[in-house]
Automatic annotation (TrEMBL):
GO biological process: oligosaccharide catabolic process
Keywords, comma-separated and alphabetical: Glycosidase, Hydrolase
MF-aspect GO terms: alpha-amylase activity
Protein name per Swiss-Prot or TrEMBL: Alpha-glucosidase
InterPro entries membership: GH (IPR017853), GH13_cat_dom (IPR006047), Glyco_hydro_b (IPR013780), O16G_dom_2 (IPR045857)
Boundaries of every Glycosyl hydrolase family 13 catalytic domain copy: 12-409
Signal peptide: none
SMART domains: Aamy (SM00642)
The organism's place on the tree of life at top rank: Bacteria
Length: 536
């Protein structure tokens, strides 16, 4: 009826924080292999692997120094090949990160480009300075200027992210050919697709000054440009369409119209995209400026994207976001109810569900104490940048504490043993102190746990064509309650979720397909953080 990637649940592994097999404090590929049976038991069909390529690790692997080699931190290419084989034996397909907007300043291409050695001279975006400063006024996603002066080349290079992540030049056709070769290399090794990092900003139409605004000056010159679409179509036509694979794009600041242009099947670009609008219901424009979680905005946004796109990549967590139970629920008094309610909502939306390691056991945001606990380069850059505006340290720390990506990058909590069973030595990032109670060992194959609820939901969706392919219809939204319908010619379900600490009365009643309160007949009263799927 559809594609295999529409009928599976994707599980994202952040390798350095998943499982340490060689006791060096860093997760690794053999550690992932050790946990494949765990993923099988959960019901996972696709494993999305955050970068394991060779890297100086300035941005935890998103600064790639060699696209065709494995970083020794994580293992060897032989380990990677074994992971692909062992996963395939269990019916799990591997999807890798494709980071092609930028790579590392330690990459051979960049080092030769600095020296003007052909054919690499124009692999990156180099320009002379202007009026004693950078070529234009663009700013970086990681705060500060988007240009860095290079003493060797005597020019500035563009970096929309960290200084150590120079942007590639897609006006150079040789760069596109290099990317095709990288994609083909990994597909030939047996991977089945890619999550494409910031894929809608790879093409810069011009280098004119950006409009004057507080953040992200220059955006209008590189966000979802026509040249970007042409590149994606070329990659699809020349490489991707020759394999049984899929692509999901991380697409920043997209509107539904932009999203349709990127993933409409007739355009042959991406298969689906991650939108961010629903993740902005607790912030003002950028994540560092928090506001109270606007539940109604969250519901309306989810509904809008369900109707606007033919297929969604649904998620509430990933390596760049906060823990959903802490962000959208109540991770203290209603921890379990919040986690299972969010899971019900996620798996009942139309689209491919993506979950992030630890989400299935209700892992929470970290209990950081100071900037000394933070490893994330983005967080440190923003902390320094805000200091230029004389914001007091306490306020800057509060902003980092509430928004840092390290909240979701803490080591996986496998057991209540030291370091959460992740390692036998001090991990690269501290383990959340609640690992004594929140861990896999306490929930694995145990009835009435968050893990078992996820397992049930995954099995339910995997075997229900209406939940997979059925249409979506919004039925009711208020400040706390979201009700919608999934239906096709054979079946219809009503999904109701209560995002509050109080009971809510709704007009629907009936037999229950699944409930996070374990009810079989619904009488019209939603309990705090209750989620139900009603039959018919």
């Amino acid at each position: 009826m559809g594609h295999w990637w529409q009928e599976q649940t994707v599980y994202q592994v952040y390798p350095r924080s998943f499982n340490d097999s060689n006791h060096d404090g860093m997760g690794d590929i053999p550690g992932i292999i050790e946990k494949l049976d765990y993923l099988t038991a959960l019901g996972i069909g696709v494993l999305w692997l955050s970068p394991v390529y060779k890297s100086p690790q300035k941005d935890n692997g998103y600064d790639i120094a060699d696209y065709k080699d494995i970083d020794p931190l994580f293992g060897t290419m032989a380990d990677m090949d074994q992971l692909i084989v062992e996963a395939e034996k269990r019916g799990i397909k591997i999807v890798m990160d494709l980071v092609i907007n930028h790579n590392s300043d330690q990459h051979e291409w960049f080092q030769k480009s600095r020296q003007r050695i052909d054919p690499y001279t124009d692999y990156y975006i180099w320009r002379d300075g202007k009026d004693g400063g950078p070529p234009n006024n663009w700013t970086s996603f990681f705060a500060g200027e988007a240009w860095q002066y290079d003493d060797m080349r005597k020019q500035y290079y563009l970096h929309l992210f960290a200084t150590e992540q120079p942007d590639l030049n897609y006006h150079n056709k040789a760069v596109i050919e290099e990317v095709k070769d990288i994609i083909k290399c990994w597909l030939d090794r047996g991977v089945h697709g890619f999550r494409c990092d910031v894929i809608n900003i790879i093409f810069k139409s011009s280098l004119e000054d950006g409009k004057r605004q507080l953040v992200l000056k220059g955006l209008e010159h590189y966000l979802s440009q026509e040249g970007n679409h042409e590149i994606l179509q070329e990659l699809r036509r020349d490489v991707l369409d020759h394999y049984d694979c899929f692509t999901v794009g991380e697409t920043v600041l997209v509107t539904p119209k932009m999203a349709r242009d990127l993933c409409d099947p007739s355009r042959k670009e991406l298969d689906m995209i991650f939108s961010f609008e629903h993740m902005e219901a607790d912030q003002y424009f950028v994540k560092w400026f928090k506001r109270k979680f606007q539940k109604k905005v969250f519901f309306e946004t989810l509904s809008k994207w369900q109707k606007e796109l033919h297929w969604n990549a649904n998620y509430f967590e990933n390596h760049d976001q906060l823990r959903s139970v802490s962000r959208f629920g109540d991770d203290t008094r209603y921890w379990m109810e919040s986690a299972t309610m969010l899971a019900t909502l996620l798996f009942s939306l139309k689209g491919t569900p993506f979950i992030y390691q630890g989400q299935e056991i209700g892992m929470t945001n970290f209990d950081f104490q100071s900037m000394d606990d933070i490893q994330d380069v983005e967080s440190h850059n923003v902390y320094r940048f805000l200091g230029r505006f004389h914001l007091p340290k306490w306020l800057r720390w509060r902003m980092i504490f509430k928004s840092s990506r390290d909240n979701v990058r803490t080591p996986m909590q496998w057991s209540d043993s030291e370091y959460g069973g992740f390692s036998t030595v001090q991990p690269w990032l501290k383990v959340n102190s609640n690992y004594h109670t929140i861990n896999v060992a306490n929930q694995f194959h145990q009835e009435g746990t968050i893990w078992s609820y996820y397992q049930t939901l995954i099995h339910l969706r995997n075997n229900d064509q209406t939940l997979i392919y059925g249409d979506f219809e919004k039925m009711y939204i208020d400040k706390h309650v979201f009700i919608f319908r999934r239906y096709d010619e054979q079946e219809a379900y009503i999904i109701a979720v209560n995002f509050s600490t109080k009971k809510r009365t709704i007009s629907y009643r009936g037999d229950v397909l699944i409930s996070n309160y374990n009810t079989t007949r619904f009488n019209g009263v939603l309990q705090p953080y209750e989620a139900i799927i009603l039959k018919g």
